[in-house]
Design brief:
Number of strands of chain A: 41
CATH topology of chain B: Porin
Number of helices of chain A: 2
Distance between the termini of chain B: 34 Å
Largest interface: A-B, 49 and 56 residues
Radius of gyration of chain A: 28 Å
Helix content of chain A: under 10%
Strand order of the largest sheet of chain B: 1-2-3-4-5-6-7-10
Strand content of chain A: over 45%
Helix content of chain B: under 10%
Shape of chain B: elongated
Structural class of chain B: mainly beta
Largest sheet of chain B: 8 strands, antiparallel, barrel
Largest sheet of chain A: 4 strands, antiparallel
Oligomer: heterodimer
Structural class of chain A: mainly beta
Order of helices and strands of chain B: HEEEEEEEEEE
Strand order of the largest sheet of chain A: 2-3-4-5
Number of strands of chain B: 10
Chain lengths: 528, 200
Amino acid sequence: MTIPNTMRTTSMLAAAALLNGCGWNYTTSEQRNLPDRPWDPAVVVPADDGLYVPLPYAGALALVRPDGSSELVDIGPGRLGEVSTGPGGGSVAALVDRFTCEPDDPRDARGVDFAEDCATGLTVTREVGLLADGVLGESLPIPSHLNALEWAPDGGAAIAWLNADDDVRLDGVVDLTSVQVLDLTQGAATPVSVGFAANGLLFTEAGDRAIVLSRSEVAVLDLASEPLTLEVVFPLTLDPDDLVDPVGVELTPDGQFALISVRGKDDLYILDLAEHSVNLVSLSGNPTAMFVDSDTDQTVFVYDNSATVDVLEHEYFELQTLQLDEPMNQIIDAGDRVVLYSTGSSLHDAYLLELDTMALHEFRLENPATAMQLSPSNEFAVALTRPENGFGSGVEGIYDGSPGMEILDLRADIDGKIDTDSHPFLLETQGIGLAFAQDDTNLEVLVLQTDQDYLYGLDLYTGTPREIELPEPPAAIGTMPDGTFYITHNVGLGLISFMEPLGTELVAASGFAAAELFTLTPLNEEAP
Amino acid sequence: MRTAIVLSLLSTTAMAADNEVVLTAGSIVTNDAGWNQFSHSQPTTLGIRGGTALTKRVSAVAEYRFQYQGVTLADSFSLVRTSYTRHLGAAGFKVNAPLHPQMPLVPYGIVEAAFIGSQMKLDDNRGSRDNPNQLRRGAITAGGYGALGIDAIPPQGEFAIGFVGHMELGWLSHGPLDMGETGVLRPQGFAFRMGGGVRF
């Protein structure tokens, strides 16, 4: 039997079509890289209302509550820029970008409902508004390049500034010398010129002044005056060719002096905010960390490149230098004491410095630290350590090659002596987070480890361990304002576990990062 | 005059058999924003279409199309597996317009009302059965499909069953598919379909 040519052609055509369909249909290896994460387990904002979770891919914001519920916050048409929380988590503000499409030819805007569909003439405006119980309040417009907020101590005011270390959006003409002072309760925004490229901000404790660092100068804003005024500008150099880049600022406890460290120099600038004068103190090096202790009215400095610690008293600004065996780069407040440690490779020392007597206690860690935290009562310091390529044998060799946790007991015995031996523990994998829970009789440290789906708890008073099962390996741990722990997990569509301090039950909230996964950015209909 | 010609075409004897059953495959060119979360390529369906002649030129047709596509969405720290299933049922009329009685290529037009049921799944841990993030959302909607195509009909001779192949270009339009908090899908648009089957 012969098959006609036309029939043969038709059959082949149909077969090709069917095979083609099957081939397109489902390929398990097909992978698409998202330009942004649905959510970032390291970027969540605890507040009184719950945990605000930015959803970068969707440009949206979710509110996840400790009871496991979650909801999408209505931020209006636009994309979420940043979420910033004020002191104590009482005030939370959202920076939202609104888009309008205004091409030269208005016909090009017909049928364009989403920012992604606007070929030309897309303009963006940025607004900042307070969030309360998952609702975005009235918003204030700010220049779209301002991407960071620094809050006043009472949470009612903030300064919006350009933090070049974050994502920067440049749209139109940008004034790089300006910040915006926001009165979030009254709904007023005031631009203030503070100097080129502001890179650091600090409010005084009373909130009546703000200190703004910028290139080669420091501006002080008088926030109590009406209208708001620039009180004084301190030049950090008189030579325009000499660029001075201030990087750190702290205030003395009485609020009169601002201590300014600068990049690459050993000088500490002491600005007298009352007398408007500048004094210079020469430090032992370029400080990597600075801490003002209000109990003893002194400031402590440590250096990456110098095995010393400097202590500066605030009356005559005289410097006392103590020698260390290794350079330190971290300072932790421990009441009228400080703990010094280093995250540098192959450095094993940690120190307890008693600021009233200048007594220095040296601890020796088995492995280099990656992080250290103090218990709330300042009785213990717990360090997470990383493995190192040691050549030891036996137990020491095992420990050298393993990630660990080391406990430093900072309590003095009846003779006033401190046990400077560390108490090391081997961890299964690298420790990535610590948290403490305490009541009258228990003090528990909780340890997160990479790729381990349990939380290790150790009572520091009794040495009693326990394990708390997690639904997925953790990414980070933090504390809500009411003390509840939250643990984020590296899970694409969102997973956060909540646990009461010293509790055993976890409450999980999941799936919140799937919100608006298929939605484009709607244009702002209420364009100015 | 024009009406008379159309009526004449619809009633004239042609080579159409009484019934046909064809397997079809095709895809839709869509600009739906959410679709790229399910595939790099366009929505692709497999289906079966049956028709029975009402007149010499007009057939009643009904068809079912099935679609199942998915992709792995990756960011720097996690993977999310997505899948999209669409069931489309449609019924309507097909009008043949032969250019010449001896010609094996027969143009046609087809118009159908469509009923669509879709389901979307997201899963960020396919190795776990009790993963809480196995999201499943479904939606139904209605729409229409219209196309112009060409049947390739080889001579049937004295056989009771003959073959047919077809190729068509058209447009699928339907209402939005509300997938809950994830958003709204509407993967509709220009359609290209082809296939083959039997006539009897």
